């Protein structure tokens, strides 16, 4: 493989080549572009005529002074990238073959004879993004060549026998290519590196698809009709021609070709979440190959990234690089080393190939490559060396452009992108502006561990000593940041202009000391909403306002999340403000009093007075965890809050906001200098010893209990549940999560409880079930991230009922249905429907950038794969038998705690203790089956012993 030099070199070549004509050509057509520019202003300064015909065909004519010879290039914007249908890979390449079969007017033997007698060199090739047909001949044959190719492109004809025979030829070509270790490596790395994008397969396609090609004649016709249309095609004609006469010939033969309307929907490749590695066995192959590939950039000629990546390849991995001298010349660990960076419309791969003779040297060579990429991320390349490289690439390229054919083929390789040769000038302008700082910044952007895929290949089944891969990011940090850090970083930086930062500390309300319940909440509030030592909170808010920057907090039992968002353009200003809040809190007495008052008011006026639904759920948690670190409400107990001092807050901050507990999450296009500064600054936090809180098992719940909270309420809210051992990292969590969804998916009308209580009976607004803590449920439809807990409960939430009688009946319905679920399990149909729903629904939980970051941090907490992949993988392997086993092992109704929020506590107590019948009345006729079921349910036993029923006045709750 030969490294393709910078596209900008082409531009210089065209500008400086002495055989070019300097006379602008003219065209009478309104759609024609006549280009004439000075060498000083444009690197591609050759005069040309570019015209788009009414049918969408683009035609470019360049007159040169090379006598007699003409090169016709026909790039078609279809390659393996466009093969989006499963089982249909390889057709772009296959049709490169079929386009030589001829037409009715010019059958293969007829046109081949004409071209042979005319001395026409007729060839083609296929790439990721385009297929190019190229012909070279004397200028006297131009009209006939255009006529023949136009007829074949418009009226391709072949028999089934020709189709099937050519399919066998393609299979033979695949087998031939498969004998090449380089091609095998490229096929292996693409298959491993890409999940959804069609770059997953090479231009040859997958072998199983090639084997099926003989029977795909109907699809072959479809493929041809889709892509062999004028809007996909360009004609590049370079040589000893008259541009206007040539344009007239093109219009005569190609002008009546009908335009199509098909556009392939190319799948977008998701951001790679982790480095990948695969070993490819090649029996009988001597030595070992190593391929290290990184995700690169899409075709963006006005940006610096593409040119910079090619420069990095040359600077660090070419035969003139220090690494080449070390590995190949000095230490002789490798016998070959080269790079290959294909230019692709969508983000592709950047490759470094190394041939190693000894197995034990593979890991050493791999690590040397990693250290070199880390060097690119941290050092500034010598400016003179960079300038010399640019010059060398330009003039090396110029030396290769010594014919009309060379010029035409180079133009064809760029015309397929935007069908405009001016991209060459754009590329050169971008490349010429690249500085040493750009090289370093772009290296940091692309050469990250999560963008890497590594392939080894040898005759061995596996490679030993290859399991401890060096992290490029870690090496770069060591080189660039001597600061010792003791926190974790989840770096998901990307091209998004929105930057999200999540500083997640593994501490929270469960760390509140006895008698100081609420100090975690007050400390978090003081950091996020209390100002810094240099600025008051009011000053910070005023500074954040024009840049629309945010910074807030979320508190739970084991997590405090300090999170913010800002546009990348304002990231430095934003960070300067919020970092001071965390690292140098103001801890002012007036802020302390204000925020403590807000927390107390939040409990009194917000939760206890006006939010019966959340109150019931929080009382349930309080009762299930009495004597446990989870016992208190997250915001604290009122009496403790009243007694807290500013010194208590300072002590909690010093003890809990440590590096050991910190997990930094970053996403968006955060400037590398700002990121580096932030990580260095965070290393100034106390080191700490405890990485996360030690949480004991939940107290054992024995029997059925009820807590009735009496307050001024017009309706009755119900919650009940019990502790469970299954948390997100448990093997049965996804199965239990599926059961929860079926039984009571939050705010979903499809869930079973919703149908039985609200939909059929019209009793309330909704009825839901949970296996993870879900606060603020009345305000949102999807759960928040960063509520990770070591202990969870199974909970049913019945939204407020019209009366105690209805609440009693609805609770009986829920228990009745839960008992049936435990006894009978789920049906196959319900299981499949729920699994299908969740498989399709789960991406919605991480639909925004900040949610993706939050869930990724949660996956770190639970030590699981990324949430969507984790859930989908487990869902795919579940059976209804698995789920019903999980139901039996996790759900029960013998040990349950009920909470009722009501205006008449004594009445509710009496109903529960005496198992009072709770008949339900309707305002319309109902089916007999429902009425009969109601008769059974209205006296269904909750079996709560009178001694286990407690009535609490609202004033005593969270006191």
From TrEMBL:
Residues 222-393, 644-836 form the Peptidase M16 C-terminal domain. The keyword Repeat does not apply. One of its GO terms (molecular function) is metal ion binding. InterPro entries: Metalloenz_LuxS/M16, MPP/UQCRC_Complex, Pept_M16_N, Peptidase_M16_C. PROSITE patterns: PROKAR_LIPOPROTEIN. Residues 59-204, 492-630 form the Peptidase M16 N-terminal domain. Residues 1-24 form the signal peptide. Keywords: Signal. Belongs to the peptidase M16 family. This is Peptidase M16. The lineage of its organism: Bacteria, Pseudomonadati, Pseudomonadota, Gammaproteobacteria, Alteromonadales.
